[in-house]
Structure to design on (341 residues):
């Protein structure tokens, strides 16, 4: 689809800067559109329904314009810098977090020819750049010059480092089965296998989803922003547009990780009994991937509003004593079956 959209432009042989700006614009839409959809569908409506309340209802039909109202509210708020903060580090932190999310989108395939970059080591690249957000969170905690922010940043770093390991290890089983690190190759392998990898890799999918929940610092893994203890942790001193950027980064990352999970475990853009390489999949493939992404995101937000917050020791114990050993066992079992069969 992206290739199809860019084809008329490429035929004109545009300058490099025109080509680059066009791709950046499409990338922004690919990140911000799903982000807004998740905020409205799950934060405003689904969570309200599950908690037996209406949610936003006054701004537009059934509260449909509430998202725009929230965006306008944050734009009007004053952008405050604490007097003793490191101004450069404080200001740059939300952009570092957003860069991590936008880099993830680069390797996501939406169809046979629908991609920005087709890397042979696509999943390796995705897992590598996903850890960049830790740097942004540490920058926010340190640059704010606040004890609440610093404690939140340190908690976030410890949590994200602990859950990066099961996140990476949960993907190894998929890579063993697909015999490739290329995300398009992983989708093609599922089509050839005849089953989505969520069936033979259901343990890997479970570990991946738990690790993603921790990566997002959402309940029950929200120790870095615990309101009752740290106000809002590393976000305490942020206001206005910079706070909004962190908010966008959280939900954009949820959308992108949901799309990655759909690609790895749910067949990506493919539909059962339909040729994965058919030309029409470049047009309906992104819609199929979006539907699967919304399903995975539903599981993430359902988990978010169901369970209470872990203590720090419970959070670390889950990663080091349960998820990591389980993911290693999953790798061993997958390798044995791969060799045997």
């Amino acid at each position: 689809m992206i290739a199809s959209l860019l084809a008329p432009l490429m035929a004109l042989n545009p300058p490099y800067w025109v080509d680059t700006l066009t791709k950046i614009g499409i990338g922004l839409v690919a990140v911000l559109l799903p982000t807004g959809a998740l905020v409205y569908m799950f934060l405003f409506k689904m969570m309200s329904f599950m908690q037996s309340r209406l949610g936003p209802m006054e701004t537009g039909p059934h509260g449909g314009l509430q998202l725009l109202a929230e965006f306008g509210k944050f734009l009007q708020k004053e952008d405050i810098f604490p007097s003793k903060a490191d101004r450069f580090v404080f200001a740059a932190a939300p952009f570092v977090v957003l860069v991590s999310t936008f880099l993830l989108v680069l390797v996501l395939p939406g169809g046979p020819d629908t991609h920005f970059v087709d890397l042979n080591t696509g999943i390796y690249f995705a897992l590598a750049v996903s850890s960049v957000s830790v740097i942004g969170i540490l920058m926010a905690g340190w640059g704010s010059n606040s004890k609440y922010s610093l404690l939140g940043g340190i908690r976030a770093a410890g949590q994200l480092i602990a859950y990066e390991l099961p996140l990476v290890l949960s993907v190894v089983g998929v890579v063993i089965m697909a015999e490739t690190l290329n995300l398009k190759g992983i989708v093609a392998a599922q089509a050839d296998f005849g089953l989505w990898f969520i069936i033979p890799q259901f343990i890997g999918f479970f570990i991946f989803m738990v690790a993603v929940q921790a990566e997002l610092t959402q309940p029950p893994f929200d120790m870095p922003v615990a309101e009752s203890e740290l106000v809002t942790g590393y976000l305490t001193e942020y206001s206005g547009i910079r706070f909004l950027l962190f908010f966008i980064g959280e939900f954009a990352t949820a959308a992108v990780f949901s799309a990655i999970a759909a690609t790895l475990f749910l067949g990506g853009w493919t539909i059962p009994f339909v040729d994965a390489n058919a030309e029409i999949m470049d047009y309906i493939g992104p819609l199929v991937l979006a539907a699967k992404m919304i399903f995975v995101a539903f599981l993430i937000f359902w988990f978010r509003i169901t369970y209470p917050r872990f203590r720090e020791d419970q959070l670390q114990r889950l990663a080091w004593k349960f998820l990591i050993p389980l993911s290693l066992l999953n790798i061993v079992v997958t390798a044995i079956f791969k060799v045997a069969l």
